[in-house]
Structure formats: structure tokens, C-alpha cells
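Dear colleague,

As promised, here are the two records you asked about, laid out in our usual form so they can be pasted straight into your sheet.

NAME FIELD: protein one
SEQUENCE, THEN STRUCTURE:
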Amino acid sequence: MKYFLKISLILIVSIFLIYSCSEEQEESFQTIDKEIAQIDYNSDGVKVVDDVVYFKNAKAFAKTMQALNEKKEKDLENWEIENGFAASYRKVLNGTSKDSLIYLTETDSAFSYIIESPEFATVVNEDGVFVIGDTIHKITYSVEYMIPDLDFSALSAIDLGDITKSAKSNIVTYEITRQKLTPVCLKSAAVTESYIMGSRLLRKNYNTDPLVFMNDEGDLLEKISAHLHAWCNNYSNYSEIGVKIVGRKRGTFGWRNDNMWYAAVSAETTYLQSYSADNYTGVIYEKTYSRSGTNESTVGGNIVTNSGQTYFRCMELNCTYTYQDDYSQTGVWEITWE
């Protein structure tokens, strides 16, 4: 009898706790809804609530992305400050987020970034979330979830790994297409080793010389490196092709992003634009790009973008990356990506 009473008491307490948690969670979602309604959009159709960027509609999103694609890294940071956005995914890319990882070695890249371009990462938070109209967008590495009616309970279910927990929300799943770009031709000058990042896979270049960087006196500089990136990604309503160079430095606890004395990247791309990820026919375009900077950890960004349901396929991407840091010789790499 005592055993039965104990079991009954435990069940009652458990049910009470579950009910209380559900009520608290529901109140939390209601509070978010009230905060969203109370804050007005700015003149660009943008607002930030609880570390999430909201766009009034698709037009506001397209206009903002077009403006950001013209900006340098410092200007992107200023946009975040002006809009009160303190949790952008750009900080994850730059290693300034509280959750940023440190490479123990420069050949260790066990994780993949869900976004590579600094511009798009500026409007997406560290959890991969942003909002257009009344639709929540949640980006992961392989898929993008679209949740209608600002149903944050469904977003919570996705974060817990079970989208079936929200039966009332009609969640749409979109498969992100990430073209795997491969460096098919490489020429380098002055510097004989670098790290090439293509489609998030870290690989050494084709040189066999073990040197990393040297200064004018011929001393090895083993505490700095450069990562050379190229990407072609298609999300549900946004496509991009881009390049960048990222400076890295080894500190006491491992490798992290570090400001370069000088860096530059120039590129020419030939790409196909179509209306289907499986369609290899469409219009072929060409675009050039050039960007340089001093005392920045990342230089580069998107060469070409499009807001809407179109798809890019990069046919050829010819890039020149230039790098100098900590008294190193100037490194120049000419790479063709396909």
C-alpha cells in the first residue's frame, strides 16, 4: 500500500511539473508575440526582437541584402550595432561569438559553417534563425525550415530534434544546395603553403614544400596562416557566389581568426542562373569582383547574389588572393575553382 502511494505521488508531481513547464513555455511564446507586435519596423522594413532579425516582407529582405552586399566587414558590424543586433552568425564566422570554436591545429576542421558569406551571416542569428513576414526561417547545414504564422513553439521543437511535436504548424523543409567547388589550378608566389577552404572542406594546396610563411630574413613564421574560401550556395529565397580570405593566428590555446596587415581578393566568375536546382539550362552570366582591406580578419564576400527562387551553378571561378601579416612576405595565390 505504501509503495502504491509513493508511485501515485511521484506520478502526480511529474504531471504537475510537466503541466507547469508547458504553461511557462506557452507564456514565453505569448511574451515574444507581444514584443514583436510592440516594436515597429524601421524605414527599411527591418526590426530586431530577442536577437532575431525581422523583415517586413520579401521586398525588405531583398533590399537589405542588396545594400549589405556593397559593404565591407566594418560596415557590416556597424549595421548590426545600428539595428541592435548582438547575436549575428557573422560573429561565429569571425570567431568573436561566445560559442566560436578554436582549431587546435590548422588541419583540423571537424565542423561546417551553415553560412559562409559575411553579408548573409549579418542578418541571421547564431542559431541560424531570421524572419521574413510571418515566416520563421531556420537554417542548418543541409536544410532550411520555414515555419508559418510565427510559430515559435515549432521552432523550439526543431531545436529539440522533433518537428512532429508541433502538429498545428505546417513546417516546410527546403534542401539547401551547396556546390562543391574544387581548386583545379593553383599558382602561388612568395608563399609556398596555405590552406584552401572550398565547400567547407579544409585541404592543403598542391605544393609539397613544408614552409608556411617566411619574413624577408628567411625566418619561418609558423604562427600565422591564411584560409582561402570560395562558395556557391542556394537557400530557399537567396542564392550567392562568393570568395574571401581569412587570416588566422596561433595563440596560447589554439588557432583563431586574426586581423591581417593587408589582404585582397579579386575574382571573375562564369555562372548559370536557372529556376530549378536540377535544371542545367538557363542564362549564363559573367561577373567580376574586387575587395581589399587592412587590419581585418576577413576580406571578401559575395560576388553575385539573387533574392528569390532562382539557382546559381558556378561554371568557373578565377580568383587572386593576396596576403601579408606579421612581417611575412606578400603571398599571392591564383586559383581556378570549378
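NAME FIELD: protein two
SEQUENCE, THEN STRUCTURE:
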Amino acid sequence: MQGTLRGLNVQSDQESILLRVGYWLLPVFFLIMQATFTYAALHRLWYEDLAESIRNVYWFEHNRVYNGGSTMVGWYGLVLGYYKAFGFSPVAAKWLKFVLAGSSWFAAAYVLKYVLGYRKALVPLCAFALSPIALYFNTFQYPMGLDLLFFPLEVCLFIFISKASLRGACILTFCAGTLAMLASMSYPTYLFYLPACVFLLHWVWQTQEKCFWRFALPISFAGFMTPFLCVWTYLDNFSLFMSDATHSGTGIFRGGATFKGLSFELYGDNLMRTLKDFFVAADSYYFYLPESDFSSWLGFISVLAVGILIVLAMGESKQMKVVCLLTVFLMLVALLLPAAGTTTPGGRRSTGFLMGFYVLFVIGWNYAWTVLQGHKRTLALSALSLLVVQHLWAISPNLEHVSKERTLSAEPFFPSDQDPNASLAFWYARAQNGEPLVCHTYREFKRYCRFDEIFAVIQGHRLWNLGLRDELKLFALTEKLQEPFALSFETPSPPPQ
């Protein structure tokens, strides 16, 4: 990969020890920043957090998916492994995301160092890792934003492939395919990255004079299909995993998204909502943020500068033009396709657009640093650096927002003004005493109570913390029920009254 495209040649790496140490301390700083955001969000446990990190994981433990809208089994497998290794709490999966974020930032630091060199990589690394959207998404147990964490790990593998022997390259290529499927089954937006992954795989194999068609393509495909085949053999209700007719036809790679028919008015509204999430302020489903990545004049100037520099960089070589056009194409696909037909639009499904922008940012930064001279170089680098200023400026208002953010989808068993662990202790004590789990439906937006999530929380606590596989008898009670309703794995909620 190194040196293949004109303008992406690394310098002799003779930077000072102080610069190198400072560079590798940056991911540590990013981890401290993420820990601050994650800690501030520990009180916030919304429905999707409970569903995607506890309920669906408990069902996955029992070789099943909850329904066709609960098919992000890559994430469930990671969370399940984390619970088995480190124990369960209602907010434990937030720290799993924290670990993934740290791994991703170190991988991004390695990739940028390899491609640009230490000194040149400082600003692009800060711009990417301090993304307000990424810092916010990483506070959720819902797997949105995981594509932003997985892609640097994937690119890191490609670099290792370019350095490895034929045998090592084959093993790493299999791992790259496996990681691509794991990421796609963790959050389906990663599917938008697959053309870029194939392009990079072809690139690193061809530059090493290794046979792409004979080795790389079949081996990577075998690695890609391995997680899918494992899920096929593991799940008892695999047909539901593929398509659930009782849940609007949802299934694998679709999550809870449903196509509501082609309407240009709806499509336009959805697209505008997504763009506002990135360029104004985020205000869509599970995405509420006062300061987004490009939500001020600082971000706008940086975006404009990236656009101008990319146009100039494409004239440098045919290969650079291909890379830029492919990136722009995938950005547009990630932006336009998720807006079609859904009734819950927003930036959470278009994070591929964000990743594509940061790829272009790196190319634009390298072009300004390497090709431009004098005042043009200073002006271009200054305009791009404004994005880091925007991201640093966004930390304070966003952190304040997260610390005060309250539940917008009512969760009667985990109110946001209480510690989720204390809520678990309260309901578990009641359940142990044979007392019903009480929910008042008049407080609920949909006017009925869901017990599926609290059922999984209590049973999961017994299983993952206490090692008790037998099901604790739980009873549900609302003001519409004449007597307590017995809950079970097959019937985790009473029918809506």
C-alpha cells in the first residue's frame, strides 16, 4: 500500500522520539475523552440499549434470534463473550464499545503513521478520533457507529497483508474476510464498505506481486462466509433470522428498517433530516446532539477545503482519481440508500458517509502538505485544521448534553434518574420474593408495557453473574391485568391489553 499512489509516500520516519511518543499518546487521550462521555451516559438506558445489548443477547445465548428485526448477531456474539468473560451489568456493553473504540483508534493511528508518517498524521488522526458523532455513538449499547470502529481495524489488516509472506498473507486475508462479515452482521451499514475492502485487498495483493484471483479472492470469500455458516449451524430459528414475515419482512442486514414504499416527498424529507444530523444539529431517532461534526462555520470551511483539494488531487494520477471517485460514490450510496422509504431516518444509518469524508480529508491533507507551496499550502492546511478546532469546541456542549440526557422512550423499569444497577437490584429482589414486576401503562407512550427486556435483564443476571441456568419465575402486573401474568422465555410479556 505504501507508496503506490503518488503523494502518499512516507518520509524516512526520522522524526524525533518525542514526536513518536506524543503521537502514540494521542489514542490514550482519546480513550480518556471517550471514558468521560461514557461515564456521563451511564444513567441513560433506552429501549434500544436494552433490546440490542441484553434482550437479544439473552435470546442468542439460547440459540435463537428474538425476531427478524433483531439480527445483528455479530454484536450479540461480542457482547455475549464479554458478559461471560467479565460479568453482566445493565450498562456493561457500554464499556465493550469503549474497548472497541480504543482498539480502533490505535489501528487508525498505525494506518495513518504508515501512510503519512508521524508528523503529517497528527491532524488527520485528531480530526477522525475526536468526531463528535463517534464519541456520542460510542456511549450507546445499541450497535450504531460500529462501522466507524471496525473499518480502521480492517485497513490495518490490509497493511499487515502487504508486509506478510504468502502464507501469512493468506491467513490474514481469511481474517480480513471474517472481520468484514462480523462487522456487517454487527451493524448492516458496513455493507457499504465492502467495495472499498475488495479494492484494498486487490491493491495490496497486486503490489506484492501475489495472485489476487488464485489466492486472495477465494480465501477472503471463505473467511467472509465463515461467520454466516457458524450462525446457520448455531441458530435454531435460522429461517426467522433470514426473513420474519410477522415483523414486516425484516431479517439479516435489514435490522428494524422497513420499506414503506417509494415517495419522493418522504425521500426528500429523510435525506434532509440526515444532512441536518451531520451539518446542523443531530435530532433524529436515537441521535440527539447539539454540536455535530460539521455544524459550525469552522466545519463548513473544512468541508469546502476538502472538496477543492480532492478535485486538485484527482489530477495527480489516474490511481488517485479512481480512489477519490470510489470514495465519493460510496459516500453517496451510504447517504442516499438508507433514506429510501424508512420512517425513522437519520445519520445513524449513514455513518459510511462520515467515514468516506475522513478518507477524503486524509487525501486532501496529504495533497496540501506535499504538493502545495507557500501561502496556498498554509491556507489549505489551516482550513483543514479548523475541523479539529470544531471538534474540540463541540466537546463541552455535547458532554453537558449527554450528562443531562433523559430517556425519550419510556423505560419504566430503568428510569434515567436512577443508577441502572440499583434498578436491577430492586427488581431482582422483588422477583426473588415472588412479587410481581409492576408497570403502569398510562405512563407509556404506546399505552402498553413491555416486559421482554426486564425479563432478559433478570434472567441474564442469574445466568451470567450467578451461573444459574434455571429460569426464575417472574410475574407481570399492570392496572389492566386482573391478576399477575406468569412470564417465560416463550412468553416474556403479557399480550397487549
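A couple of things worth noting about protein two: The first strand starts at residue 282 and ends at 284. Residues 3-7 have pLDDT under 50 and may be disordered.

Best,
R.
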